[in-house]
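Lab channel / #folding
Pinned by the channel admin:
"Please post every new chain as: sequence first, then the structure tokens as a reply. Keep commentary short and put observations after the output so the thread stays searchable."

First post following the new format, from NK:
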Amino acid sequence: MYTSRIAGMGKYVPENIVTNDDLAGIMDTNDAWIQERTGIKERHHITKEDDNTTATMGVKAAKIALERAKISKDDIDLIVFATLSPDYYFPGCGVQVQELLDIHTCPALDVRNQCSGFIYGLSVADQFIKTGMYKNVLVIGSENHSGGLDFSTRGRSVSVIFGDGAGAAVLTRSDKEGHGILSTHLHSEGKHALELSLRGPSTEYWVPQILEENPQEDIPYFPYMNGQFVFKNAVVRFSEVIMEGLKANNLEVADIDMLIPHQANLRISQFIQKKFQLPDDKVYNNIQKYGNTTAASIPIALTEAWEEGKIKEGDMVVLAAFGSGFTWGSAVIKW
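Reply from TO:
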């Protein structure tokens, strides 16, 4: 059986920075309130003036990852695209990336696991490489949240959290035993699906039905989040799935060189860090700059940590995510 490794990574975020003070100008909130609850200071949002979409941001991140991996686009055997905010209801962004990168009839699939999307995509790519079916797989997480948020006081508890951006990784076959992606671990608990959800537009709530049947204060095409319930479940599942990954590889918490959690809320990351008694230099957070970029958050953070020299060859890197679905997962990587 083959193993897979991350050969190159890339990230892209829009140039437009939206600070907490900017949001305070359009809704009843303030910088202290947002930072106290989320740790976020600013985020990047797409503007009407730029050419960014979920797919094009993914392509920009992918081009950087391909260059760093020293792999030609024509050598990509499969594209896996994770997002909750595709450009179209259908088709998915995977085929858009295939077209924009001008890759000839490369298969493309889309992963809809929201905050856990990149971990799920990484796992899919890893399995394809391990079985020998594909050699090089491009995995992208990209989100355009700002196009679908309620920027009023009514929606502030959700809208202040999310940012736009993309991250990408090129996975390739490895012949180095004991290195690369050692294992991935995936879970879901659908009974809590509506605790963090966006119900329309969908086949349940098409736009005409929404406008006809729902009063303005109860519009289901804006995201809903039961914040406290999500937080309580997140800290439990994060801990469980991190330990599951360590035990599967006969590792201890002390063996972790870098933990990169999904950037959902700085308070969640700090809770996990304290529980595992990890020092600051072994946990990477950048939600302060980007907010929650959902499927893009882990690849953006992973790319930045590597760029800053905080991940080196031989390091044991653990990725973990929890989000809508509920879904959660982890990946253990020997760099």
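NK: The first strand starts at residue 3 and ends at 12.
TO: also worth noting, The chain has two domains: 3-177, 181-334.
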